[in-house]
Amino acid sequence: MDERERINRLRWRCTRRAMLEMDLLLGEFLERIFPTLAPAQADAFIILADMEDLELWPLINGSRECTDSVQAEVVALLRNVRVK
């Protein structure tokens, strides 16, 4: 799979969520922040994007702590995204 196809698949996972808030947040993050991530952070984001909304949302809203340090960095970045 080439890079373009990989990003298109990731875009699909980020914008076809059960929660509209997650669609908007992950979609905005993918477009604006994802291209600037270090490779380990990009991998962590992909893992986070594969989580179900009910599992990911508590990490983003701070009601559950992230145990992986790199994922925690990405979650911190997600918390700072302002959706247009």
Automatic annotation (TrEMBL):
<protein>
    <recommendedName>
        <fullName>FAD assembly factor SdhE</fullName>
    </recommendedName>
</protein>
<dbReference type="InterPro" id="IPR005631">
    <property type="entry name" value="SDH"/>
</dbReference>
<keyword id="KW-0143">Chaperone</keyword>
<dbReference type="InterPro" id="IPR050531">
    <property type="entry name" value="SdhE_FAD_assembly_factor"/>
</dbReference>
<keyword id="KW-0963">Cytoplasm</keyword>
<dbReference type="InterPro" id="IPR036714">
    <property type="entry name" value="SDH_sf"/>
</dbReference>
<comment type="similarity">
    <text>Belongs to the SdhE FAD assembly factor family.</text>
</comment>
<dbReference type="Pfam" id="PF03937">
    <property type="entry name" value="Sdh5"/>
</dbReference>
